Amino acid sequence: MSAVETFLDSNELVLNMGPQHPSTHGVLRIILKLDGEKVNGTECVIGYLHRGVEKIAEARTYQMFAPYVDRMDYISAVSNGLGYCLAVEKLGGIEAPPRAQAVRVILTELNRIASHLFWLGTHALDIGAITPLFYTLREREEVLKIFENYCGARLTTHAFRIGGLQYELYEGFEEQVRKFCDDLPGKIDEYEELLTGNRIWVERLTGVGILNAEDCKRYGVSGPMIRAAGVPADLRKLQPYCGYEQYDFDVPTRVNGDCFDRYVVRMAEMRQSVRIIQQAAANVPTGPVMAKVPKVFKPAIGEAYVSIEAPKGELGYFIVSDGTLNPYRLRVRPPSLVNLQSLDAMCKGTLVADVVAIIGTIDIVLGEVDR
Fold first, then answer.
1. Domain of 88: which CATH number?
2. How far apart are CA 146 and CA 152, in angstroms?
3. Residue 33, domain member (yes or no)
4. Could you give the 3-state DSSP secondary structure of residue 301?
5. Beta-ladder partners of 11
6. Are 252 and 268 in contact (CB under 8 A)?
């Protein structure tokens, strides 16, 4: 649908992009205000995938609600589960055993790689490059095999429990992880050979969708987007959890804050995740994988907020306990929703084709936007 509005003797076209548009990465509707091909402004319309997850939590026990969070960012289900478990553990004064923490790091970093691989393939497809999707899905499949061997799920991977892990590691887990980490850097080299020096790719992304550091802070943007603007903000370094302070890794940054820099940052992050996984897999402690958690779990009256560095940015859970079996209130701070706020600022003055590239480099999942 479209309409033409006359304003100050100029024609402005108001056009819907989505919610059926494949490049909006889900059921996102963007109202574009156009002057020819030039974007004068955008308005995001969300809520088409709203399931009321936060309200559902009030009618479930803490343990029963845990699988629901896997359905928000369904590309990063493992990270969703980690953030929720850490928040409940903080509320209940529980600490997962060292073995569980090391395995949590391995699985969440594998999840970060799988998320970035899926982002890269679909983003390249949006721009018009078909081949990278076949390459990235090939490597992502190896991560999904590890998840499936561990807990039986590939997409909505429910790997953790409040207090530790769902299962002990299966035989051959370390070898499978090590082989994947040995192979992936060479595969990333292939992606970069296809894209990083490709003239069309560079021209489509360089100088497009610029968001500087001050604007990132103003909009609450986090994750690869703010790091691409030169801010080395990574919660794994700033407020370590699960023993991240033990691991040696760098926080990749760039300075321009455009679509190309966000691409470069995510590519570098996959290499850093490999470093973390290799260190964790080489030193997995022995011992139990679960802390002592009461079967009837009733945390004391109080509240807790915990945030983690999810693949898309800061993922936070705020939980209020009234001393009963169920949370009194649960609120999620999803990075996809918060980062999406910056879309209008990045799109103004660009062309319609650039909107597709900008949405891609935000890396949104609508299940997390709407919840």
1. 1.10.645.10
2. 9
3. no
4. coil
5. 6
6. yes
Question: Within a domain: residue 9?
Answer: no
Residue 10 inside a domain? The answer is no
Separation between Cα atoms, residue 217 and residue 233, nearest integer Å: 11
Classify 289 as helix, strand or coil.
coil
Task: Show the tokens assigned to 161.
Answer: 């429990």
Query: The tokens of 107 are what?
Result: 């699985």
Neighbouring residues of 179: CB distance < 8 A, sequence distance ≥ 6: none
Write the pLDDT tens digit of every residue in 107-145.
999 999 999 999 999 999 989 889 999 999 999 999 999
Q: Which residues contact residue 82 at a Cβ distance below 8 angstroms, ignoring those fewer than 6 apart?
A: 104, 108, 160, 242, 308
pLDDT band at 10 (very low <50, low <70, confident <90, very high): low
Residue-wise pLDDT for 316-333, tens only, equals 999 999 999 999 999 999
Judge contact between 107 and 164, C-beta under 8 A. no
Task: Output the pLDDT for position 31.
Answer: 93
Distance (Å, whole) CA 361 – CA 208: 10
Label the pairing between strands 10-17 and 2-7. Answer: antiparallel
* Number of structural domains found in the chain: 1
Query: Does residue 172 lie within any of the structural domains?
Result: yes
pLDDT digits (tens, 9 = 90+) for 248-293: 999 999 999 999 999 999 999 999 999 999 999 998 999 999 999 9
* 215/10: higher pLDDT: 215
- For 305, the domain range is 53-370
Residues ≥6 apart with Cβ < 8 Å to 124: 130, 131, 132, 133, 195, 201
Token duo for residue 153: 């799920």
- Evaluate the omega torsion of the peptide bond into residue 132 and state whether it is cis, within 30 degrees of 0: no
Average pLDDT of the chain? 91
> Is residue 336 over pLDDT 50?
yes
Alpha carbons 189 and 50: distance in angstroms, whole number: 39
Please write the tens of the pLDDT for every residue from 207-258. Answer: 998 999 999 999 999 999 999 999 999 999 999 999 999 999 999 999 999 9
**DSSP alpha helix (H) spans, the chain:** 53-57, 62-65, 77-92, 98-127, 131-151, 173-195, 199-205, 213-219, 224-227, 235-238, 259-282, 335-340, 343-347, 352-362, 366-370
Measured between alpha carbons, how far is 189 from 45 in angstroms, rounded to an integer? 38
